[in-house]
Amino acid sequence: MPRILLLGGTTEAARMARALAEAGADAVYSYAGRTEAPVAQPLPVRTGGFGGVAGLAGYLRAEGITHLIDATHPFAAQMSRNAVAACAATGTPLIALEREPWQADKGDLWTHVPDLPAAVAALGQAPRRVFLAIGRQNLSAFAAAPQHHYLLRLVDPPTEALPLPDAEAVIARGPFTVEGDRALLRDHRIEMIVAKNAGGAGAEAKLTAARELGLPVVLIDRPQVPERRVARTVAEVMAWLDL
Ligand code: 3Y8
Ligand code: NAP
User: Fold this and answer.
1) Best of 47, 70, 79 for a ligand 2 pocket test (most atoms within 8 Å of beta carbon)
2) Residue 9 and residue 75: Cα distance in Å, rounded?
């Protein structure tokens, strides 16, 4: 019987957890501990970093983990790199449950940028009203363009002052709806959106609302992660586990 470590924090990870629980699998769900009250899971949960590659390798050995499923977010690149290294070091089979990047549809006004500095530059010089839908961890990059008015969406209320002089935060946890995001864009008279190319359904509503309102979107490409076995569906992972 496999003993599984599921690196979570996404919609796909929640679906994976349900399938493992229904199969009666021996599995542990892992959160980084980024948010105050993460959603409950139908598996035993552990929270917090492992302590780099060595810490994760030690955890795999100590817990007798036989399979690792990396269902973290495409922008959680450090965790994914560590998982590949720790699994190589311990000979633990690894699979990533990964979502496709979003592709532009007819009517989408998207500018693809490789990273945060390029996203800041894409806003231009003239002051704009910008919806920064990228969470809390990367806001400081936009301090280089203080002339804009920023609408932020955070999971938890900010604990310290925001690094942007002209910003307001809405506190909300996805998944989000098109109606809700359309109203948000209208109420705040948003002219431009910055988002990560997360893929998946949980963060997609704002892109649909932007298309309907004819608003431009600056979309940040996902970071590189090392080569690894990838599954697109929960069923593929269950087959790989022979469950
Ligand atoms: C702690 C677990 C589920 C998972 C839901 C998905 C969908 C809703 C959309 C916007 C974009 C953003 C952000 C976002 C979404 C899902 C998914 C997703 C984007 C929770 C969660 C944790 C986190 C961490 C959080 C980050 C932040 C990113 C907000 C739980 C709710 C912007 C990414 O305040 C902070 O420190 C937030 C940090 C990492 C990115 C950042 O750098 O700030 N996610 N999000 C996980 C952990 O501790 O291990 O608290 O319940 C999970 C979800 N967030 O159960 O259905 O799967 O993508 N999360 C992005 O996609 O751009 C919001 O506002 O439109
Ligand atoms: P990251 O930058 O890739 O990882 C930084 C460090 O955080 C990792 O080295 C690890 O610490 C710890 N960590 C990350 N994910 C973990 C997990 N699931 N379980 C245990 N430790 C974890 O990670 P991040 O981008 O901050 O993402 C953190 C969490 O939020 C992940 O669960 C991710 O799936 C979720 N999330 C992130 C985003 C996003 O935009 N980044 C969006 C939605 C959800 P150690 O080195 O000490 O082990």
Assistant:
1) 79
2) 11
**What are the per-10-residue average pLDDT scores of the chain (243 residues)?**
97 97 98 96 98 98 98 98 98 97 95 97 98 95 97 95 95 95 98 97 95 98 96 98 93
The number of the ligand nearest the C-alpha atom of 48 reads 2
**Alpha helix locations (H) across the chain?**
11-22, 52-62, 77-90, 116-122, 178-187, 205-213, 234-240
Give the pLDDT confidence of 51-95 residue by residue, as tens digits.
Answer: 999 999 999 999 999 999 999 999 999 999 999 999 999 999 999
Q: What is residue 55's predicted lDDT score, i.e. its pLDDT?
A: 98
The verdict on the CB of residue 9 being under 6 Å from ligand 2 is yes
Q: Which residue has the tokens 């495409």?
A: 74
- What is the 10 CA–ligand 1 centroid distance (Å)? 7
Statement: the pTM of the whole predicted model exceeds 0.90: yes
> Are the C-beta atoms of residues 131 and 192 closer than 8 Å to each other?
yes
Complete domains list, the chain, with CATH: 3-100+224-241 (3.40.50.720), 109-220 (3.40.50.720)
User: Does the beta carbon of 7 lie inside 6 Å of ligand 2?
Assistant: yes
Pocket test for ligand 1, best of 12, 35, 137, 170 (most atoms within 8 A of CB): 35
Write the CB contacts of 38 (distance below 8 Å, at least 6 apart in sequence): 9, 31, 47
For ligand 1, is residue 32 a contact (CB within 6 Å)?
yes
